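Example record

The entry below shows one chain as it appears in the dataset: sequence first, then C-alpha cells.
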Amino acid sequence: MGSSELHQNDANCVWVDGPIIVGAGPSGLATSACLTQHGVPSLILEKSDYLASLWQLRTYDRLKLHLPKQFCELPLLGFPHNFPKYPNKDQFISYLESYAGHFSIQPRFNQAVQSADYDHILGFWRVKTQDSEYISRWLIAATGENAEPVIPDIPGINKFNGSVVHTSSYKSGSEFKNQRVLVIGCGNSGMEVSLDLCRYNAIPHMVVRNTVHVLPREMFGFSTFGIAMALIKWFPLWLVDKFLLLVANFILGNTDQLGLRRPKTGPIELKNVTGKTPVLDVGALSQIKSGEIKVMEGVKEITGNGAKFMDGQEKEIDSIILATGYKSNVPTWLKGCDFFNKDGMPKTPFPNGWKAEKGLYTVGFTRRGLLGTASDAVKIARDIAQQWRPNNSCSNSHVILLKET
C-alpha cells in the first residue's frame, strides 16, 4: 500500500493521508514497508524515474556489497536464499525491486522536491515539486548521506586536458585501457576503481590524502564486520579494535610501509565518532604491493597533462577519477529547519537522529549503512503508527481547510 490515499484539492495541490517520504532508495522503501505493516499509508516522492536511482545510475559495474547479505537486508523481507554471500549490484537492485513489489510500494517518479516547509499556522508540511504541492502531517527525509557527489576544488584542475570523472559516472576500466589514471581518494571506491583499472591494463596512481584503516574483508573465513559485531556484544570497543588491527597486520602486513598510514584511533571507534568507514580489501592491496597500483601523496596542483604532488614528484596523467565520496543534499530542499547541520546530517548523533520535531523524521543518515537504515525505519514506523490511530479520520476536514488557503 505504498501509494497512499490522496485527496486532490485542485490541479496541483495534494493532501497525503500518511507521511510523505522523500527518496525511493533503500531508506525510503524500508520505511514505507514498515509503515504498511502498521496499516499506515505513505507516499514516496522520487526525483528520477527509477527505484534506488543511485544504485542504478551512479555505481560501477563490478560493485558488490562490502558486507555479507545478512547485514544489508531491509526489514520484513530478506535476500533470496540463492544469492551469494556478497550480492553484486544487479542482484541488490533486483532485491529492491522485488521488495517494492512485495509491499506494493509505488513511488511517484519524476517528482524532484524543490522545497519542504513546515506551515506553523496549519501544522502541516508543504512539499513542493516542479509541478505539485503535497501536504501532510509527517515528512520523512530518506535522501540519505550519498545524494550528491563531492567535487573537491583542486588547484589547476580546469587546465587539465584529459577527462575528469567522479566515481558516480565511472562504469568500468574498459574506458581507460592502457591509460595513466590519477585516482583521487583511497576509500572503498578509490581502492576498487584502482583495482578495476588494473584489469584493463591501465596504470592507476592512487592519491592518499589522509590516514586510512585497511582491513581484510574476511578473517579466518568469516566476515570481518560480522566478527566485530559479535565481539562488541562481549568486549569493550578498544579491545575489539586492538584485536582487529592485530589480525589485519597478520593477514595484510604493515600498511604504513605501503603509504597507507593508519589513524591513531581504532577502526570501529573512528567509524562511530566520524562516520569514516574502514576500507575492506578485496584485492587492491596485493596490487599495491606488486606496484601495479602506485600510491601517491596529496596533489599540489594539476597541470595541462599531469599532476604535481606534495612530495615534489611530477607525473604525466591521461585521465583523473575523483573517488571523493558523496554528501547529503537536505540543505538544498528542507527549509527553516535547524535539525540538520550545514553538511545535511542530523545534529543529534546515532541512535537518536531519526526523529526531529513537528512530524519530521530522517532515515539513512546514521553512517552505519543498511543496518542503520533498517533500525531507523522500524523506529519511525512505530512512532508514526502511534500518532496515526487516533488521527486517521480527520483528513477530509483538512482538505476543506486547505482549499481556502
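Notes for this example: The chain is about 30% helix and 20% strand. The longest helix spans residues 369-391.
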